Amino acid sequence: MFRPIERRSFLKTTAAAAATAASAQRVLGANDRIRIGLVGCGGRGTHVAQKILEGNTGVEYSAFADVFDSQAEKARQSLAQGQGDTYRDFRLLLERDDLDAVHVATPDHWHAIPAILALRAGKHVYCEKPLGHNVLEGQAMVAESTKFPKQVFLTGTQHRSQSHFMRIARMVESGELADVHFVRVWNYSNLLPDGLAARPDQPIPETLDWDMYLGPAPWVPYNPARTVGTYRAFFDYAGGWITDFGVHRFDTVHQIMGRDQPLTVNASGSRYAVGGLGDQPDVLQVTYEYPGFVLSYEAINTSSFGSIARLTPGMAMHGAKGEIDRPNGMAFYGSNGTVIADRLGYETVPPGPKSTSRLAGGASEHAPLGRMHENNPEPTLAHGQHFIRCIREGERPRCDALTGHRSSLVAHLGNVSYKVGRKLWWDGQDEKLISDPEASKHLGRVARKPWDLVTL
Q1: DSSP string of 227-294, one letter each residue
Q2: Dist CA 212 CA 449 (whole Å)
C-alpha cells in the first residue's frame, strides 16, 4: 500500500517510483482490452466513462474509487453491471497492476494528487479540467507528466476534439478571418435570489469519508453543500464558473489564436446580489492582454441570456434554453467579420460598415465573411475515442498536461487578480507573477497534511 503522503517537493521523483511505473505498465496491442479505474464517481465522471465505453470496443471500467460509498457502487452498477471493485481510498485502486489507465473526475481540489500518483504507478491518465486547484498544482502535474513520456496524459477539455474549432483555427491562421485582435468569452446563468441556499452543518454520514473528501483543503464541519454538485461555489475546492466553464473556452481561444500565455490579467467583480452559501463572485469580468490580442471574460450569475443573441433560427448552442439566448460563448472579432462559437457550433457575421476615415496603418483589405453556420455533436464521445487511440495507436494527445495547464492557469490567474483587487503582470516563460509577492501567495496554498504532496 501507499504510505501516507509526506511533505515533499513535487520536483522530486524517486528511482523507486520510476521503476514501479515501468514495471506496472503493460505493452498494449491494437486488440488488447484496456482496463480503466475511475477516481471520482459523480455525474461528470460516470457520464464521460459512459461515452468512453460507448465510443470504443475492448474497453472496460473495473475499479471505482469515491469517498461516498453510494457513488462508487452506483458507478459500478451503471458502468460494469455490478462487476469490479469499489474503494474509498483511491490509492488502493492505484495499487492494482491490472489497470492500464486512471480516469480522474473528482472535485477540482483532488485532481492533482491522484493524477500524479497514477503516473507514478504506471497508468495512463485522463484528467478532468482544471488541471489542479491552483497554478502550483498544475505546474506539478506538468512536471510529473514529463517524467513518464510513454504514458498518455489527456486533459478532459473535449473542445479539442470538436471539428468546427479546428475549422475556425484554420480561418484565423489563413487570414480568412483577418486581423483578430479582440476575443470575448462568457458564461452566464441566473442564480437569483439565493444561489446555493444556506443549510446548517450536519453530522458526518457513516457512508462518507469526510476527512478524505477535504484532502488538502482546510478542515471544516461537514455540510452537504460543500460536496457533489455544488462544491464549485467554494474557493476551498474550486474556482467557480471561470475554472469550471471558462477553462474549456480559454483552451479553445488558445487553440484558435495560437497563443497560450497572457501578459497581464485584470479582474473586477463582487457578490452583489446572489445570496446563500459560497464565496464566489456573482459578477466577474477579467481582461487579459496576450501578444497581439485582448481577451475579455465574463462570468455572470444574475442573468442567463449571455453577451450575444443567437442569430440563426433553430441553431443549437450549448446550455441554451430559449429561442435566442446564448449563455455560453466565444466571439472572435476580425476586420472582415466575426465568428461566434461554442461547443455545438458556430456562425459567422459579416463586417459592419467602415468608418468614413481610416487611421494610418489600418487593417488590410480582406474579402468579407458571408453568413455561415454549422452544428456538430457534443464532442465528449470523440474525445474519449481519441484517448483510447492515444493508448492503443500512439496518437498524440490533443490536450496534454502542459496544454491543459496553460488553459487552467488563465482561469486561476483571473481569480488571483480578483482576490487581490489589482492588475497582474505574468511572466509566461518562468510561469510566475512579476514583482508581486502578495499575489504570488495565491498561486498555491499550504495544503493540509498528510495531503501536502503539492504545497507552498
Answers
A1: STTTGGGSTTT--THIIIIIHHHHHHHHHHHS----SEEEEEEE--S--BB----SEEEEEEEETTEE
A2: 11
The CA-based angle 328-333-338, given to 5 degrees, is: 80
pTM of the model: 0.93
Rounded to 5°, angle at Cα 37 from 124 and 154? 35
**Dihedral over alpha carbons 117, 237, 42, 87 (to 10 degrees):** 40
- What's the angle, vertex CA 297, arms to CA 115 and CA 307, rounded to 5? 125
352 Cβ contact list (under 8 Å, min separation 6): none
- d(CA 408, CA 192) in angstroms, rounded, equals 27
Contact criterion met (CB below 8 Å) for 67 and 208: yes
Buried b (16+ CB within 10 A) or exposed e, 226-259: bbbebbbbbbbbbbbbbbbbbbbbbbbbbbbbeb
Cell of 31: 486488440
* pLDDT tens digits for range 328-340: 999 999 999 999 9
- Predicted pLDDT at 365: 76
Residues 107, 40: Cα–Cα separation, whole Å: 8
Helix (H, G, I), strand (E, B) or coil at 41: coil
Alpha-carbon distance of 165 to 249, in angstroms, equals 11
pLDDT of 23 higher than 80: no
Span 357-385, average pLDDT = 83
At residue 28, the pLDDT reads 67
Whether residue 8 is predicted with pLDDT greater than 50 in this model: the reply is no
Is residue 3 predicted with pLDDT exceeding 50? no
Enumerate the H helices of 321-400 as residue ranges: 380-393
> Residue 44: is its pLDDT beyond 60?
yes
Task: For residue 424, give the H/E element and its range.
Answer: strand 424-427
Mean pLDDT of the chain: 92
Give me the sheet containing 59-65, strands edge to edge. Answer: 85-87, 59-65, 34-39, 101-104, 124-127, 153-155
Place of cell 472535485: 107
